[in-house]
Amino acid sequence: MNVLMIVESCFGNTAEVAGAIAAALRAGGAQVRLVQADAAPAPAGEDLVMIGAPTHNMGLPNPASRSQAEAKGARAPLPGVGEWIDARPRSLDAARVVVFSTVTGGFMSGSASKQMAKRLRRHGVQEAEREDFRVLGTTGPLADGELERAGRWAETMLAAVGAD
Ligand SMILES: Cc1cc2nc3c(=O)[nH]c(=O)nc-3n(C[C@H](O)[C@H](O)[C@H](O)COP(=O)(O)O)c2cc1C
């Protein structure tokens, strides 16, 4: 199985989740290309495309929210995953697409993965799955057990693609 994983991360937490997912996929025999959103290529025939982002203001990062993150010490390179989705490579149609995000959680936290799914559907792409992982505050860290949960989630993906 070949996987393209595109991640945007301001404080490193979503990147950590992406790393755990990639490690579990590789342990299961997958070839994984993990790239930052600002260097993301178009899909090139991969079986699975995974897109990850932090939740900002209940949805996807945008230029204003990235500036807010930078004011708190983050590195927020452009473009991010929202811009990548809006550019919508045609080759995305052929892949199974899975989205994930990090959230602080709680009442009205919103979710970047939910907004990514909506945006993909607007572009005619239906996501196969989406998931959120909890951080304990704006800069992190991830809540206990989330990296392990990310690894277990990745294992279900190996099974799903294998079964297709
Ligand atoms: C500008 C800004 C707005 C945010 N808004 C939300 C929000 O609406 N809901 C939420 O759950 N987390 C929110 N957060 C916290 C992010 O979820 C958290 O910073 C992110 O998950 C950390 O991931 P990263 O290290 O990959 O950037 C916000 C963070 C920033 C910087």
From TrEMBL:
It comes from the Bacteria. Gene3D superfamilies: 3.40.50.360. One of its GO terms (molecular function) is FMN binding. InterPro entries: Flavodoxin/NO_synth, Flavoprotein-like_sf. Residues 3-158 form the Flavodoxin-like domain. This is Flavodoxin-like domain-containing protein.
